[in-house]
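Good morning,

Attaching, inline, the backbone tokens for the sequence recovery test we're adding to the shared suite. The designed sequence is right after.
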């Protein structure tokens, strides 16, 4: 890779290599050899690729809309990062929605 390439250009090149790895039958080791990459560099970009392609699943817009008709006896909201929020039956449904939206997860 050209040392003068911008960071976004490097990311684009590396993501193309990752996509080639995902669509082919070559191992990570073979991809690294083909593109003259160290395994640690390939692993780094593979993690960045996965994070960038999974970020939409963790965004607030990815929540499934819910409708609360009757006040539940209790409500547990579990976030993708494992955090659980326990709410009592006295919790207002509008408050629950605002709470979820404010997390930014």
């Amino acid at each position: 890779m050209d040392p003068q390439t911008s960071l976004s250009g490097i990311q684009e090149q590396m993501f193309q290599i990752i996509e080639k790895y995902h669509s082919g039958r070559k191992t990570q080791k073979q991809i690294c050899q083909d593109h003259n990459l160290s395994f640690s560099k390939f692993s780094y970009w593979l993690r960045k690729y996965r994070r960038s392609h999974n970020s939409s699943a963790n965004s607030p817009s990815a929540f499934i809309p819910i409708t609360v008709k009757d006040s539940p006896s209790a409500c547990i909201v579990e976030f993708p990062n494992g955090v659980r929020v326990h709410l009592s039956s006295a919790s207002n449904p509008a408050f629950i929605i605002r709470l979820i939206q404010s997390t930014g997860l």
